[in-house]
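Example record used in the benchmark description.
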Amino acid sequence: MSLLLDYVKKQLAAEVAHPKFKAGDTITVHYKIKEGDKERIQQFSGVVIQRKNEPATASFTVRKISNGVGVERIFPVSSPFIDKIELNKQGIVRRAKIYYLRTRTGKAARIREKIQKSTKVAK
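Model output (structure tokens):
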């Protein structure tokens, strides 16, 4: 039983390194790809359409439009191949899983952006 607990603790520690994001946010995932004996980092930018938060098997799905075709990719949160995750924009959505984006194209597929309030005081 302690092996399982150690594994779960290690997975949860890996999740802490990533920024907090949810469905509707636009993120860039830097993913390591091995090709033969070489390794490179590929970026995948898109909108998070879902997040599954089971403790050891948490994952998220990112959707983007590439050459007019929708592309979705599922990433495990605790994957050792994820180099880093950048949070580009925070979106305002009213659902936890925004599958309705799959049927929308163009302006209908836009997500409202959450505006960050600045704490700087003008002099």
